[in-house]
Specification:
Layout lengths: L9 E6 L5 E8 L4 E6 L20 E6 L18 H15 L4 E6 L1 H12 L4 E7 L6 H10 L5 H8 L10 H9 L4 H17 L7 H7 L2 H16 L8 H4 L9 E6 L7 H10 L4 E5 L9 H18 L1
Parallel strand pairs: 3-4, 3-5, 5-6, 6-7, 7-8
Antiparallel strand pairs: 1-2, 2-4
Helix pairs in contact: 1-2, 4-6, 5-8, 6-7, 6-8
Length: 313
């Protein structure tokens, strides 16, 4: 279903301030239809396979690693790292690349950031393709920490095992204190534990390679730190803002793709977004979880990217 592997035709590091530099790349057709890819996490980064989602004969795909993530530096940095910073970074990148408007594609945390960016800059967005909806509300954060462990109790036991019993009443703060500790002997074990827990629950059938990747030092350092950082600060947005401001983008063409058995971002959230946004095309994929790379999810997203080629041509 994916297009063949390809290399970027341009890439670079964009200085954001005195602390952060952001890695970006462009793939496909230099004069093609701009599409922005927003990775999940926060803190994960763009995988090379993400380039293969976009028809290189039509799309000018722009991918970047968000502050503190992937190839952006410094990795795992929490200072000056908020949702508003990320929205500004996207605009800085758009101006840097000379793009007037673009299609926005985001899944999981990428769907959160896509909605926040589009609501802040609706005149810069031509449409949205969203997957695995996360709106950053307290109930969704609580589900991540406790709820999905009901389906993978053995993984939840692994997840809580680094935290003493007395501290488990506030699991997020207990993790966050350790993740922010400068001593690698303290923060690395809980980084790995956090990364494994998420990766173990991300698909209907566990993917050992994905679990190994997410629990590696390189990935888990930024993933765990930044996810906990954003969770502790309630994604730096007022509770429910992304639903309350949906009228700002209801005129934009949009697709919502959601796995029926998504344990990381349960479908109730996507259903609620669809109720607030009846103009959006809501697609619930049977026998699919959260992962972009599950067959039903991937196939439908590729179909939607094909459909948008005709909408935007």
């Amino acid at each position: 279903m994916l297009y063949p592997p390809l290399m970027p035709f341009a890439s670079g590091m964009l200085p954001l301030d005195g602390l952060h530099q952001m890695y970006w790349e462009q793939c496909g057709l230099p004069e093609g239809q701009p599409v922005l890819y927003l990775h999940g996490g926060p803190g994960d980064g763009c995988a090379p396979a993400s380039r293969q989602l976009f028809d290189p004969g039509f799309y000018r795909a722009v991918l970047f690693d968000q502050r503190g993530s992937g190839r952006s530096v410094p990795r795992g940095e929490l200072r000056d790292n908020t949702t508003l910073h990320l929205i500004d970074d996207i605009e800085r990148l758009r101006l840097h690349l000379g793009i007037e408007r673009w299609l926005v594609f985001g899944g999981s945390w990428g769907s959160t950031l896509a909605l926040a960016y589009a609501q802040a800059h609706p005149h810069r967005v031509q449409g949205l393709i969203l997957r695995g909806i996360f709106l950053g509300r307290q109930s969704e954060i609580d589900w991540f920490l406790h709820g999905m462990g009901q389906f993978y109790p053995e993984e939840w036991q692994r997840f809580v095992s680094p935290i003493p019993q007395a501290e488990r009443l506030d699991l997020l703060q207990a993790y966050y204190r350790r993740l922010c500790d400068p001593d690698p002997a303290v923060h690395l074990p809980v980084c790995r534990s956090w990364g494994r827990y998420e990766a173990a629950c991300v698909a209907i059938r566990q993917n050992p390679e994905a679990i190994t990747r997410a629990s590696s030092e390189y990935v888990s350092l930024s993933l765990a730190r930044l996810e906990a950082h954003y969770f502790v600060h309630r994604i730096f947005l007022p509770e429910g803002q992304l639903l309350q401001q949906i009228d700002r983008i209801r005129h934009l063409p949009a697709v919502i793709v959601q796995g029926r058995y998504d344990l990381v971002c349960p479908p109730v959230t996507a259903c609620e977004l669809a109720r607030h946004w009846p103009e959006a095309d809501f697609q619930l994929v049977e026998m699919a979880g959260h992962s972009l790379w599950e067959g039903g999810i991937l196939q439908l997203l590729m179909q939607q990217l094909e459909s948008f080629k005709y909408r935007l041509a």
